Every structure is written in C-alpha cells, then in structure tokens.
Amino acid sequence: MRRLAAAMLVVAVLVGAVWEYRQLRGSDSPVDNTGTGLTLFYGDKGIPLPPIEGRTLDGAQLNLDSLRGHVLVLNVWGSWCAPCRAEAPDLAKLSKETAPRGVRFVGIDVRDNVAAAKAFERNYGITYPSFDDQQGLVLAQFTGIIPVGAVPSTIVVDKTGTIRARIIGRLDPSTLRGLITDAEADR
Fold first, then answer.
1. Nearest-angstrom CA–CA distance, 48 and 105
2. Residues sharing a CB contact under 8 Å with residue 53, sequence separation 6 or more, in sequence order
3. Closest Cα to residue 157, out of 169, 146, 166?
4. C-alpha torsion 122→128→132→137, nearest 10
5. Three-class SS state of 90
6. E strand or H helix that includes residue 101
7. What's the rounded Cα separation, in Å, for the pair 103 and 64?
8. Which of 10, 19, 122, 125 is the most buried (most CB within 10 A)?
C-alpha cells in the first residue's frame, strides 16, 4: 500500500510539474510575485483549483467542488509547525468573522496523527474541517502551486474555483482579510 501511495505521489509531482510549465509557458508575466511570500494571480492568470476530495480529521468525506460558489481559504498546517501554531488563532478568528458572508475555510493537515491534529484544533478553536493528509496525497494535488515542504501555506480561491492568491509561510491576518475581500469582488 505504501509503495502504491509513493508511486501515486511521484506521478502527481510529475503531472503537476508539466501542468505548471504549461500554465507558465508563453506568458510574459503569469503572476505578480510581491517578494513577501505572497503571490497574486490576476484575471485569466488565475489557476483552476484542482479536483480535491478526501477524508477529514473527523472521518467525513469532503469534496472541494461542493464549495464552489463560495470564496475558499485553504491552509496547509501541522501541529508540529511553530508558524502554524502562531497563525492558528488568526485563522480561527477570520473563519468565524467571514462565515456569515459565505467564506469557507478548509485545512490540509500534513504529517500528523489524528489525535495530535484534533488536539491542535481544540487548542486553537479551529472549527472548520481539515483533510487528514498523513500520506501527503492531498497536498500532492497542489504540485506546482504549493511547494510540498511549504508549511504553512495558504491559498485563496474565488467563487468560480480559481486560485487568486498564495501565501507561503506564516500569514498576516490583515493581508488575508484583504485577499478574501478581493476574491469576493472577483467576477
């Protein structure tokens, strides 16, 4: 089973690399990288959200297609990650603050056992669902978008399912708030 998972990960990485090359090829400036860990994807330079589904930490199945029509914030985290612990209170607060506007948050918990991940969520008041991604298969679907080792990372997806922003590293809550507002205004 582990060999199959490893083989699937290798294939996903290769497919993602080809996909990223095709997205960038032939364009003078596909993204506006601000040099701060924040990358913005404007207009037709946005990246379609890959089809993602999997099991959450609570054991439920989650398909991100079911959230189309909402602004979506995806955060890659691990309980072992110090910057993840530092940004968790801000994510919990923003998720509650923006939920009445239809904004949805989803986590991707990597390299954790379920008990540690659930303790992290309880400790920081995280109430939104997180994928249980111990094997890295959910994160592998973002190859070319989020570097595998970039924990934490956050992406903001507009209502059409287009990735509009990526933050590598610890996020600033005011920046994320602005990115959410921009994604709400898109299209």
1. 17
2. 61, 62, 63, 64, 65
3. 166
4. -150
5. helix
6. none
7. 13
8. 19
Q: Measured between alpha carbons, how far is 28 from 75 in angstroms, rounded to an integer?
A: 29
DSSP state of 110: E
Tokens of 21: 């090359």
pLDDT in tens, 72-114: 999 999 999 999 999 999 999 999 999 999 999 999 999 999 9
Which of 161, 72, 82, 144 is CA-nearest to residue 108?
72
Q: How far is CA 137 from CA 41, 62, 67, 127, 153, in A?
A: 24, 14, 20, 23, 16
**Mind listing the pLDDT tens digit for each residue in 22-70?**
333 333 334 444 557 999 998 888 999 999 999 999 999 999 999 999 9
Within 10 A of 138 (CB to CB), how many other CB atoms are there?
A: 25
User: Quick one: three-class SS letters along 121-182?
Assistant: HHHHCCCCCEEEECCCHHHHCCCCCCCCCCCCEEEEECCCCEEEEEEECCCCHHHHHHHHHH
Least Cα distance to 109 among 72, 54, 40 occurs for 54
Q: Which residue has the tokens 């399912």?
A: 161
89 near 173, Cβ under 8 Å?
Answer: no
